[in-house]
Design a protein that fits this description.
Shape: globular
Domain Aminoglycoside phosphotransferase: 14-222
Oligomer: single chain
Keywords: Kinase, Transferase
CATH class of the largest domain: Alpha Beta
CATH superfamily of the largest domain: Aminoglycoside phosphotransferase (APH), C-terminal lobe
Pfam families: APH
Number of domains: 2
Strand content: 15-25%
Helix content: 40-55%
Structural class: alpha+beta
Strand order of the largest sheet: 1-2-3-5-4
CATH topology of the largest domain: Aminoglycoside 3'-phosphotransferase, Chain: A, domain 2
Mean pLDDT: 90
Order of helices and strands: HEEEHEEEHHHHHEEEEHHHH
Number of helices: 11
Number of strands: 10
Protein name: Choline kinase
InterPro entries: Aminoglycoside_PTrfase, CcrZ_PhaseVar_Mediator, Kinase-like_dom_sf
């Protein structure tokens, strides 16, 4: 990012796993800069789902840098994830034809359950596969593949952890960090929010805020996708040798497997 230093900007890392995000400041003006962002950011900005995109530039290295308005604010806390605002924004995302058309123009193909299962099943280490709960979950996944028609697939975020929800000082709610966006079953996002943040007795109320009914088929799909995401997190933390976090996800995986046993 030497280009911006030369132009008189001061840059500070804005965190994130990629290490490619910065807070840039010059003469009291602050921007959020990111290298190699997806063109999808333009559509997200236009929909008001992320802070407004100010410009996109190709710098001397050939990299593309995007600048967004810097928003002072905070991440949502876990108790706020069962709110009407979260449900409504997620529904807006899942219902957006503009976002869906943008991903299609980027030639993204629908992510079917069979592909998700094949991807996770082929990536697991021997250590993770040796775990009884993981093996039991993989058997469940193989035997209970969802069958939602892909005509009902939407844009999904894929990582709706509370840390990715930003509430600005102006009371604006955003969902950020879209590197994992897919065209897929919206139950992927819905299930992870409900299983992680909402008491099961309140699921019907949350789904009503979102705008759908609490059906048996939806519960089956939510459970399936939540299991596959939990296994992916177990594998990720095992690779990072963060074994306490890995064990926490194994515990979560076991809870999901044992809940809704009638499904």
């Amino acid at each position: 990012m030497e280009h911006f230093y030369q132009l008189g900007w001061t840059l500070d890392s804005a965190g994130g796993a990629s290490g490619e995000a910065y807070m840039a400041e010059q003469d009291g003006r602050k921007l959020f800069l990111k290298r190699n962002s997806s063109p999808f950011l333009t559509a997200l900005s236009a929909e008001g789902i992320v802070p407004k995109l100010v410009w996109t530039k190709r710098i001397e290295t050939g990299e593309v840098v995007t600048a967004q308005h810097w928003k002072n604010g905070r991440e949502l806390v876990q108790d706020e994830m069962n709110s009407n605002r979260v449900a409504k924004l997620l529904k807006k995302i899942h219902s957006s034809k503009q976002l869906l058309n943008m991903l299609k123009r980027m030639e993204m193909k629908p992510m079917h359950p069979e592909l998700l299962f094949k991807k996770i099943n082929s990536s697991l280490s021997r250590h993770v596969l040796a775990n009884r709960t993981v093996r039991k979950s993989l058997t469940y996944l193989e035997d209970n593949m969802p069958t939602l028609d892909s005509r009902f697939y939407t844009v999904i975020h894929g990582d709706v952890n509370h840390n990715n929800w930003l509430l600005s000082d102006q009371d604006e709610l955003y969902l950020v960090d879209w590197e994992g966006a897919m065209i897929a079953d919206p139950a992927i996002d819905i299930g992870m929010i409900l299983y992680t943040y909402v008491d099961e007795q309140n699921w019907a109320d949350w789904l009503s805020m979102y705008g759908i009914n609490d059906t048996h088929d939806l519960k089956k799909r939510m459970k399936w996708y939540t299991l596959i995401q939990a296994i992916a997190m177990v594998e990720w933390y095992e690779e990072k040798k963060r074994y306490q976090d890995m064990n926490d996800w194994l515990h979560f995986l076991s809870e999901v497997m044992n809940r809704n046993v009638f499904i």
